[in-house]
TrEMBL record:
Gene3D superfamilies: 2.80.10.50, Endochitinase-like (3.30.60.10). Disulfide bonds join 493-508, 502-514, 507-521, 551-565, 590-602, 595-609. Its cofactor is Co(2+). The keyword NAD does not apply. One of its GO terms (molecular function) is metal ion binding. This is Chitin-binding type-1 domain-containing protein. The keyword NADP does not apply. Pfam families: Chitin_bind_1.
Amino acid sequence: MLSELFIIINIISSIIASSGNFIDSKKPIWIYNEQTKNPLCLYTSGFYDGIISCEECGNSDNYKWYLSTTADDNSIQITSALDTSSCISYNDNNELILSDCSDESVLYYDDIFKNLEISDKCIGIIDENNSDSYPYINLENCETNSNILWDFSDVIPSKAVTPTKTTTSTPTASSVWLYNENTELCLHVFGYESNIPTYEECGNTDDFKWYYVKVKEGSFFKSKDNPELCLRVDDEDESKIIMGNCDANAIFLYNNIYKSIESKKCPDNCIGNPNFSSVKNVKNKVSLYDCNNEVRDDQMWTIKKSLPKLKPTTTTIYKPTQTSTVAWIYNESSNSCLYGPDYENGIPTYSECRNLDDYKWIITKKKEGYYFKSKSNSELCLKMADENKIIMGKCDNNALFNYNNNYKTIMSKYYNDRCVGYEKLHSYGVALYSVTKKSVTLYDCSEEVNDDQMWKLTTSFPRKIVTTTRTTTTTTTTTTKSPSPTINTSYRCGKEFNNKSCSKGECCSKYGYCGTGSNYCGTGCQASYGRCNDGGRCGADYGKCLNDKQCCSQFGYCDISDAHCGLKCQSDFGLCYGSDDRCGEQYGRCKGKKCCSKWGYCGTSSKHCGTGCQPKYGLCQ
């Protein structure tokens, strides 16, 4: 039996590159799925609109097909040997049928993932274990599933050919790069036994290239530098990844949705580096660690057919050199500054602001978030000791935070519903204005941002806002007309703050703070000094939707329908639909009745709607 590579080369060699029309192959082939218990082939009765099934491979024309391809891309059409004027197509029930050759019969074959795609879905086998009849085929989502992997053969497939055979040193698959987009680095290894692969700047030599070889249980990743060796889990240390024999320890499962490479031997553990350095020119050895609850950035690998190109370095979003600003971190409600001890494991506190280095912070913007470094000891950062405790420590991944300029919150990079504040003080309802030396902590801010969690970053020394009460004697008229509000320039508003009014679109909370959330525009909102409503309106005249799960339509109304979240949705004042089925803070809301997974993908499966589902950006179970 000839190899699948010979078939593909034979097809491509018959192409004349002078036109983009479909060109027929002269030799019939079988299209089979060998990942099932027995090789199963596509079968047709030859009737027009007849449903195509999957049966044990036979030698009649019912099992034979002709491929037509183009010189322009990997699109193909498949015609039946029984009737070469009819092509594989599909009906409204996502069933494969034999029908006219048209745009609806154009398929795409991915020679890496072995997928046959039509109408953005993959041909898959349903009910493989049904003992009463042969399984039938259908169109389904192109998720990792052995029953959507298809091969071509110019002879009848049989059990004599098995993809688990590994005695050949030269795989039939083309070589690929394993690319981590977050770091812009490739997986690299020199081809000798027991060598540990590393993250490196991508190159075009064989030590950067891999053979991605499908086997029944999963996949092998063979080094092109030495195809006898596979990426594998070490026999003694299951967290260690080395080059070695292509055996059971070398079988991995590649998830095309989450881009993870999971060990077959150690389920729920993926290739990455939990202590990955952000410095791109430093060698970082890969290892195997947990990816059950979350696939981290360093565990996401894209399989590239060509040398990955680095992202432009002229972007204004991420710069190759970090930018830093020295500032005070100021809590206006308590008139306090964040004080950072200059020794490791010291606990930061709310303290009276002073013009000393202990009260200043070097705020460094990184690709992944922000570091808040103590100016008195720039080796130490504000960091999480656990999900509640904040300390001073080494500037590692646990020291990364996000800063929300709208809500003035310092939010954990890894617990995106927890913000820096003082939970005990808030819980007991004690006024913040008399706070001195109160330890900060990390606590929930998903439903409400409290005053103690609001931090202003200022490069000038913070000054306490002093409000004075003027007592004047009026001789005649008394009037109930409210004093004319003045525009607020310091985020305070209301009767107790010189009758200052918020900027257009903002609300004045009952405590005298300007903002756009429900804490500002809801109960107790001061209508004389800003906007107040029930959240039904939005836009330039009203501000953001009060419900942060809603979209702002082109006409200025809040809701989650297609009319609100789709065409001309106002993203400055609410959510809008994301693109390419992505969702979350960077992308927006899922279209229709879909869930937004913890990793920012839209869908309806349990992975999307279950643990970690983001209700702000779609439905959840």
